Every structure is written in structure tokens, then in C-alpha cells.
Amino acid sequence: MRVPFVKMHGLGNDFVVIDARADRVPPMTNALAAALADRKTGIGCDQLIVIEPSGTATVRMRIFNQDGGEVEACGNATRAVGLLLGQTATIETLGGLLTVSPERGGVSVDMGQPRFQWDQIPLAYAMDTHDLPVAWDSLENPTAVNVGNPHVIFFVADSDAVALDQLGPEIEHDALFPARINVNVATIESRDRIRLRVWERGVGETRACGTGACATAIGAMRRGLTDRRVTVVLPGGALTIEWTADDRIIMSGPATESFRGSFDSADFGA
Containing domain of residue 58, as a range? Predict the structure, then answer.
């Protein structure tokens, strides 16, 4: 059985998108998602996305990281799905209900409200998430935010100088984070500009991370380091993040379709 897919990316954070609403596709498993995401023997992507029917929204979006683990949210993938839908729509995710709106040059996403309570991140035990009294080597006193998935953010003098390939996996798997964690290292360049690198849980360092940009912007705003609307510059490009007066996170940025194809599910054990 051949299954159609769309290869897409948001600022270089790339996805294989499978529309399961009309086409007959095999049930998505962790093993199948990991096999398809493999860059040497599969199609290759940071995340695999499955669009399904929803009883509460326009569509349901399921998100599988490169290691096959299913996760709650992905901001860049939400913009990609919004581009495919081509109209204002609601998207059901494990992290909550999101609203997408196509706009000139990309897609805007209402990512919902940030969560700050220690058990909403979650952390292993009660702690002030505004300024965590913890450190890993040169990275210390981060802030933690859940924006549909969990993030910890370190504000540093030069994010490019951080050995994220070493510290990222160590922090991701630390016992303090029972659901693991996405790791962000950010440099405040001005009141409206942040430079950011992200180690994504289950993926590794990526060229862009939409939820990481949201979490970092909210963390900076919460500490009074920036204004309520900022540009977040990642290795793959820039996103605009706004924290509105009614406590909503609005993310705006591009999404791109790379190519379309199909695969034989039997080649991947399905």
C-alpha cells in the first residue's frame, strides 16, 4: 500500500506530513514514525506529522519526534499544517487547541496560554520556575515554561558559544524533568530581538523550533528582559512572537512545501 506524504519545513525544521483524513494509511506507531524519520534509510525529518479527523476542531494533528516518541506540540509543524489547510482553522493537539491563520509571507498561530506551575512543566518536585536554582556546567538558573510542551531556557552572553551538543542531551534526560525537556540557550540582543539555539527533546539541535521561540520569548518577557513583541532569530531564520494582553501567545512566520511523494508502508514493517 503506497501512502502519499508532503515534505515541508519551517525555517529548516523539517517534517513529513501524512494526511490520514481521506487516504487509507496504516496506523502510526512509534517504530514506523522513527523508521520514516530516519535520514539514511527513511524519508528523513525532524518530526513526522499525521493529520486526522477531529470531533472538536477542523483537524487533529499528531506529532512524532525523530526518535518515534509522540509529543504534545510543535509550532513550526502547526504553521506547516496551516499552510496545507489554506484557511483559518483550529487544530487539536495533545498540547491543546490551536488556531492557525494564513497571512502574507506565512502563517500565524495562536499557541494558547503559557503555563508556569512546576507541575505543569512538569518538574520532579516543587520549585520556582521563574528562576530555577540549578546548573549544568556553565548553564545556570534557567526559567521554565510549558507552551504545549516543556521548555527550559538559559539566558547567556553568547548562545553560539554553548556546547549544546554536550549539555543538551544531559539536561534533556535529567531526573528533574520526568517528561524530559526541550533546552533553549538564548542571547538578548535588544528589547525586541533574541538570538536562540534549541536542543529538541527526542530530536537534537534543530535549525528552528517554534515552541522553543515561544517559550524563550515568554521567559524573557516574564523576566523583564524584552518587550511583549519580539523577533526570535534561530539558525534557520526568524519568527515573531507576541504575548498579548489577554495572555495568548501569537507566533508568526513562514512555512514551505518542499516536495510530495509516496512510500510503500510494507518497506517499513507496516
Answer: 2-111+255-268
